[in-house]
Fold this sequence. Notes:
CATH topology of the largest domain: Uridine Diphospho-n-acetylenolpyruvylglucosamine Reductase, domain 3
Helix content: 25-40%
Structural class: alpha+beta
Oligomer: single chain
Strand content: 25-35%
Amino acid sequence: MENLIQYFPGYDIRKNVRLADYTNTRVGGPADWAFWPKTIAQVKTVIEELHASDRALPITVLGNASNLIITDDGLRGLVIFLTDLAEIQVVEQTITASAGAAIIDVARVAQQNGLTGLEWAAGIPGSVGGAVYMNAGAYGGQVDSVVSTIEVLTRTGEIKSITNADLAFAYRHSAVQETGDIILSATFALELGDKAAIDAMMEDFNTRRASKQPLEFPSCGSVFKRPVGYFAGKLIMDADLQGYTIGGAQVSTKHAGFIVNRGTASATDYIQVIRHVQQVVAEKYGVTLETEVRILGEQ
């Protein structure tokens, strides 16, 4: 597969793509190849062809690349960005959204149609696929409470539907993390609500986010999972790590659970800050901070 552009004529495939241009952290090395499919049929064709090839490439599937860090060495093989697959459909009290749709847009569509259940997603910057993959949540809500089914493409090219019960949802976990299936869409089962109450709740959540989170800087969102019995941000703050900086990556002075790019950060800076925070918190409090953010690429 020396030249994917010739192998898949007419597809939006590019060579040696700078991934920092597409991540929320604004860091990350190059991808050998990047692909922006316009249809599910295009995704299926590429996956089937590469699976059948005796020179198959590593494949990484991304949406908005919001809750991840890509290393400075980048990603080998093919990176598939699903952001052009962003259709959102409403049928009575359900919303079906393509994997590349922003979860915040799905929440807005629910709001416009007087449907309640997705207010918590009003300010989450990730895609539908990413939200399902990691069972995203905020302010007491989670994906697992509203998703009824998802549609996936297996790595052999089969399209199938998976129900909520078979997704093994847990805190920041879904079964897709083990299967490697590519999420194509998700259907959300919502309830009719009072539109004024929905509007007020979403406005409240967005106001709280703006006041507490460092939205003025690039970041990967919440870096660490919540340890049982603790709050990661408070542990980091109590360890006097707010403002700790390596290169251009800094533990946010506004919210200790975030690491921001002050403008010149590399992925290595980010990873070194993460490791230092984990080490100090473990030494001071005996608590292991597990990353919520995904780190992709060689370290």
